[in-house]
UniProtKB/TrEMBL annotation:
<dbReference type="InterPro" id="IPR000073">
    <property type="entry name" value="AB_hydrolase_1"/>
</dbReference>
<dbReference type="InterPro" id="IPR050960">
    <property type="entry name" value="AB_hydrolase_4_sf"/>
</dbReference>
<dbReference type="GO" id="GO:0047372">
    <property type="term" value="F:monoacylglycerol lipase activity"/>
</dbReference>
<dbReference type="InterPro" id="IPR012020">
    <property type="entry name" value="ABHD4"/>
</dbReference>
<dbReference type="GO" id="GO:0034338">
    <property type="term" value="F:short-chain carboxylesterase activity"/>
</dbReference>
<dbReference type="InterPro" id="IPR029058">
    <property type="entry name" value="AB_hydrolase_fold"/>
</dbReference>
<protein>
    <recommendedName>
        <fullName>AB hydrolase-1 domain-containing protein</fullName>
    </recommendedName>
</protein>
<dbReference type="Pfam" id="PF00561">
    <property type="entry name" value="Abhydrolase_1"/>
</dbReference>
<comment type="similarity">
    <text>Belongs to the AB hydrolase superfamily. AB hydrolase 4 family.</text>
</comment>
<feature type="domain" description="AB hydrolase-1">
    <location>
        <begin position="8"/>
        <end position="103"/>
    </location>
</feature>
Length: 222
């Protein structure tokens, strides 16, 4: 059915190496559709068949993909309120986006006017959001914890497949070695240190975790 031009636009964001094909995203989009919302299941760069066109991979600190989606929705439906939701890694990205946009608003940046971020975003939900990235990620790689036994290997394997698929493009980044030794990358933090820290301009993992920490970001969102 045709929706009014001011129908809310709902943008849903997935977790690590996920996409619009996953159950949580499908459920959220279906729920929004029942409410009469225009629903967008956003696939991050390089995920779920989306090509990676630059050496900068997605990460918890990368708000560009969400910003592009929000700007496109705002341009096409200027009268519509925009709602954001994400789970797991997606919560970091949305939190980063909202904090960055609110900072622009408060400092007189180009998007700083009304509706919170100034881009029509009126609400956001962060589902299964780790408040402390450092302790959360440490738990994921601790072999003495259930999460370390189950999730670390599975997530690391997914990240390995992602970077094998996009290795040619990623290797074009000046700070990433041409011959990336994937066999040496065994944990989530190995991948973050070897690739995300380098391609996103952080000095180390501590700086990266501090930047994406919801404990830092949430107070910045008004």
């Amino acid at each position: 059915a045709d929706l009014p031009l001011d129908a809310p636009v709902f943008i849903m964001l997935h977790g690590i190496n996920g996409g619009s094909h996953e159950g949580p995203t499908k459920w959220a989009v279906a729920t929004g559709a029942v409410r009469g919302w225009r629903c967008v299941a956003l696939n991050l760069r390089g995920c779920n068949g989306v090509p990676l066109t630059s050496p900068k991979v997605y990460s918890a600190a990368s708000s560009e993909d969400v910003r592009t989606a929000v700007n496109a929705a705002r341009a096409r439906f200027p009268a519509a309120p925009i709602l954001l939701a994400g789970y797991s890694l997606g919560t970091y990205i949305i939190g980063t986006y909202l904090a960055e946009e609110d900072s622009k608003r408060r400092t007189g940046g180009d998007r700083g006017r009304d509706n919170g971020s100034g881009n029509g975003v009126v609400g956001a939900v962060l589902i299964s959001c780790p408040l402390d990235p450092h302790s959360s990620h440490a738990g994921l790689i601790d072999p003495n914890r259930p999460a370390g036994l189950v999730y670390n290997g599975a997530i690391a394997a997914e990240l390995r497949r992602y970077f094998v698929k996009h290795k040619k493009v990623v290797s074009e980044h000046p700070d990433v070695l041409d011959e990336l030794e994937l066999s040496d990358l065994r944990t989530i933090q190995d991948f973050e240190q070897a690739l995300i820290v380098k391609t996103h301009g952080f000095s180390d993992l501590e700086e990266y975790y501090q930047y994406i920490s919801p404990e830092r970001l949430i107070p910045c969102i008004r």
